[in-house]
Amino acid sequence: MNCYTHNTRSAVGICSICQKAVCHECVSQDEPRLVCRTCVTRAVPTYGYAYGYGFEYKSSISIGGWPLVHFCSGVDPVTMRPRVAKGIVAIGNIAVGGLAIGGAALGLVTLGGASIGIVAALGGAALGLGLSIGGLAVGSIAIGGAAIGFVHAIGAGAIGPSVISGMRCDGTARAFFRQWIAALPPACR
To answer: Going along the chain, which residue ranges are E strands?
Structure first.
């Protein structure tokens, strides 16, 4: 197979963006993967991402070496690994920070598919020392479909010392949750 641009030269591979055969001269040296120079110079992002690499924003203000806001997604073009948002407010596919929002989130207050929070965690699977809310919630106060509470738990399948579930209603849990939840299950009224 010969190069798309130089018909007499042998191709060393295929551009990962345009799928054309490229020779040594046509390959961009600045990219970590095989991309032709034409695609590198063409600024045509696909679905908001430049060539699948994603994007990144870090605020110029930082506290303790962490940016105030760090927003990123996609893949780091140098390492070809997923980017991790790290900041006081971190938003990304993977987020670590004071307020972390992402598919996988770790921090003080977190919101994500898989969420690990010290003060509060909200997500599909939420693990926290304080309040945890999610499909699977584990924490001191756990609210969710499957809730495991170290102090209080409320949910369809709740486990803990003080529980409100479809089958059981403890007096201490009822007194605690009545502060915030007006409608309790019929078994708890």
So the answer is: 13-14, 21-22, 54-58, 62-63, 66-67, 69-74, 84-128, 131-154, 157-159, 162-164
